[in-house]
Amino acid sequence: MVREYNVVVVGLGIIGSASLWRLSHSSSNVLGIDAGAPINLSGSSHGASRIFRQAYREGEAYLLLLSLSGDLWRELDDTCDRRLIVETGGLFVGPVASGVVRQSVETARRGNIKHKVLSDTEIARSFPAFQVQEGMEGVYEAGAFTIAADDSKCHMLNVAVRQGAELRFGDEISACIEQVFPGLNSTPYAYRKCIYTMSRDGSFIIDEAAHLPGVFYASACSGHGFKFATGLGHLLAKAASSGVLDDSVAIFSAKRFI
Questions:
Q1: Whose CA is closest to 217, among 225, 226, 208?
Q2: What residues contact residue 176 under an 8 Å CB cut-off, 6+ apart?
Q3: What's the pLDDT score for residue 190?
Q4: Which domains does the chain have, with CATH numbers?
């Protein structure tokens, strides 16, 4: 008997896993599929940790999505019996001449994000572990935190399954190791590469498929998608349920390249 699903999530990287997590709150008839194992090296979601920050030099266009994502990362953390986020604060340092720190500071000011601008001598005094050269500056964001990347992704999938979602994975990575070394623990231990795609302008592409109405996608997150995953997953889940993508991500539409 062929089973029908309300929503199918294709690709269970961090954004797909977050989409499945959010969808499972409103529907148990959801399927998530991926060609690889739950943790694999074929994308950019794997690894021990990621950084979350809102003093984002890429600009204020990301602020609403960053705020939503930060709230959802904390919500995810609250549902887990182990720590998924660590409130560390974050220090971003760069040459004064490059302007990259000033761009972060401008975003922080526009978003009312608590921050402190530091000179090279102030960085050395406040953070003695850093050897900062003359002509550098920094911005410290107290609300920045570290995300346990693999643990968070697995927890999203576990929550989704507990709430009735179904998962299907290919038989790569771990299954091959078990066949060759049957006495070895096949759970991956360490990682060495991270592969991600880039859009022409270095930003997200989030849209509805032009020739497949009701199919929504997020792609080419250009190396800075992990921190946004909870927010993107939430918005994609809403779109899959309502049939409409939220206006807040219209600036990331593929149509901007036409």
A1: 208
A2: none
A3: 59
A4: 7-89+143-257 (3.50.50.60)
Nearest to 14 by CA among 224, 222, 225: 225
| Helices 14-23 and 149-162, packing angle to 10 deg | 30
Specify the pTM.
Answer: 0.84
Is the pLDDT reported for residue 172 higher than 50?
A: no
The label of the residue with tokens 């994308």 reads: 43
Instruction: Decide: residue 82, CB within 10 A, 0-12 exposed, 13-18 middle, 19+ buried.
Output: exposed
Question: How far is 143 from 140, CA to CA, in rounded Å?
Answer: 9
CB environment 95-112: b (16+ within 10 A), e (fewer): eeeeebbebbbbbbeebe
Of 62, 47, 73, residue with least CA distance to 103: 62
Most confident of 166-180, 184-198, 200-214: 200-214
Measured CA to CA in angstroms, residue 59 lies from 54, 74, 103, 109, 214 at distances of 10, 23, 7, 11, 30
Distance CA 255, CA 258 (A): 5
**Interior CA angle at 70 toward 68 and 72, to 5°?**
70
- Strands of the sheet containing 30-34, edge to edge, are 7-10, 30-34, 166-169
Q: Calculate mean pLDDT across residues 163-173.
A: 80
The string of pLDDT tens digits covering residues 32-76 is 999 888 888 777 888 889 999 999 988 888 999 999 999 999 999
pLDDT digits (tens, 9 = 90+) for 195-230: 778 888 888 899 999 888 999 999 877 777 889 999
Count of positions (residues) in the chain: 258
